[in-house]
Design a protein that fits this description.
Bound molecules: protoporphyrin IX containing FE
Shape: globular
Distance between the termini: 63 Å
Structural class: alpha+beta
Strand order of the largest sheet: 1-2-12-9-3
CATH topology: Cytochrome p450
Radius of gyration: 21 Å
CATH superfamily: Cytochrome P450
Largest sheet: 5 strands, mixed
Length: about 400
């Protein structure tokens, strides 16, 4: 019976990724730790357990979730990326890019991000309809992260396509997209070696790890990670925010009247519709959680989207409440891998939402278009979000 229930829960998660929350509740109550053969992972769904797993990199490794990749050009040297590195290497890698994403450095991007947001709203203002995803949320974060890395404007849309494929479920296309993206980045790396610019790729070329420059493989991993992590998530944050606001029109009215509430509203969106639903770790030795024996090497999947709806941590977790305080959601992860791009994601979302709410009123979802989930097993978001609106203020 329990097995049957577990199988149907997994099937539900696969079939209805936009409405996993009732299912998460059942899992939290009845099977807080359960093995899903379909996902080949142990699902961990309660807030405290999720936090325990992600706070213990010694027992739950990020690095060991993937077979170590070896590159022939690197003479067999193991290549690790930040997201999939464990201490102590993780700290060294993180220190190479952390400067670029401090709240202070990120704040200096405010003017440029504001320009990009308004330019995209200008393009649709007169028509009274727009697709929040394709007309704004898909565009703004890719332009920002591509500019930070130093990718020329004319190539940014191509990057968006590769990146979408990389987080999708299409395995063969994924490999091809990685190969194409790597070839492109290598070309830029060669150019920046000859002629450094004021961008992140040039900064990484100057960086030293254990007294040596980064290898091409390490550079490529960094570029790919920053590009993909730096926009797929922010895109869905902006989309999830608008989707939720259209369900709670009073919140939109309140935010228009009190824009200082936009940052806490963004945190609540991250809790309520967590853009990254699940993480991945590997047990490094045999262990137990709630009496379940997890063997060394097995994959453990902390469900952030469930932890963020845990009634033991949040009162009335299924209510969207922008005044929730405290709001200790785990949407950006926790501990050593806490999202390095959180200040940037928060700023992009704040500027985009402020611009939308100040300029447009009567924003309503066009329900003639059914919501479709993005094609990913761990990203929460919608493919498109058509809305109607009235322009009340144009941007000078
Ligand atoms: C709403 C937007 C975002 C969400 C929800 C999000 C979520 C996350 C989460 C949950 C992690 C932890 C992964 C783990 O523990 O395995 C993470 C790590 C990371 N994120 Fe984000 N992210 C967002 C935006 C960004 C942006 C804009 C950037 C970059 C520019 C970025 C770059 C990274 C990087 C590099 C890591 C790895 C950090 C490390 O391993 O130390 N993210 N993010």
């Amino acid at each position: 019976m329990a097995q049957k229930l577990r199988a149907s829960l997994t099937a539900h998660l696969l079939q209805d990724p936009l409405h996993p929350f009732a299912c998460y509740q059942v899992i939290r109550e009845q099977h807080p730790v359960y093995y899903s053969p379909e996902f080949r992972s142990w699902f961990i769904s309660r807030y405290n357990d999720v936090q325990r797993v992600i706070d213990d990199p010694e027992l739950f490794s990020s690095q060991q979730t993937f077979r170590r990749r070896r590159s022939s050009s690197e003479e067999g040297k193991t290549v690790r990326t930040l997201l999939w590195a464990d201490p102590p290497h993780h700290r060294q890698l993180r220190s190479l890019v952390s400067q670029a994403f401090t709240p202070r450095t990120v704040a200096s991007l405010t003017t440029r991000i504001t320009q990009i947001a308004h330019a995209h709203l200008d393009a649709v203002a007169a028509q009274g309809t727009m697709d929040i995803i394709s007309d704004l949320a898909n565009q703004l974060p890719i332009i920002v992260i591509a500019e930070l890395l130093g990718i020329p404007t004319q190539d940014q849309q191509q990057f968006k396509k590769w990146s979408d494929i990389i987080v999708s479920l299409a395995r063969i296309e994924k490999k091809q997209a990685v190969i194409a993206m790597n070839a492109y980045f290598l070309n830029i790396i060669v150019q920046r070696r000859q002629e450094p610019q004021d961008d992140l790729i040039s900064a990484l070329l100057n960086a030293q790890l254990d007294g040596a420059s980064l290898s091409n493989a390490e550079l490529l991993n960094f570029c790919r990670l920053l590009l993909v992590a730096g926009h797929e998530t922010s895109t869905n944050l902006i989309g999830n925010a608008l989707l939720t606001f259209t369900e709670y029109p009073d919140v939109m009215t309140e935010l228009r009247a009190t824009p200082e509430l936009i940052p806490p509203a963004i945190e609540e969106v991250i809790r309520y519709r967590t853009p990254i639903q699940r993480l991945r770790r590997a047990a490094t030795s045999d262990t137990h959680i709630h009496g379940h024996a997890i063997k060394a090497g097995e994959i453990v999947s902390p469900i952030l989207g469930s932890a963020n709806r845990d009634e033991e941590q949040f009162s009335q977790p299924d209510i969207f409440d922008i005044h929730r305080n405290p709001n200790r959601h785990l949407g950006f992860g926790h501990s050593i891998h806490f999202c390095i791009g959180a200040p940037l994601a928060r700023l992009e979302a704040k500027i985009a939402l402020e611009a939308l709410l100040i300029r447009f009123t009567d924003i309503k979802r066009n329900t003639a278009f059914p919501l479709q989930p993005v094609a990913s097993s761990f990203v929460y978001g919608v493919k498109s979000l058509p809305v109607t609106f009235r322009e009340v203020l144009s941007y000078e």
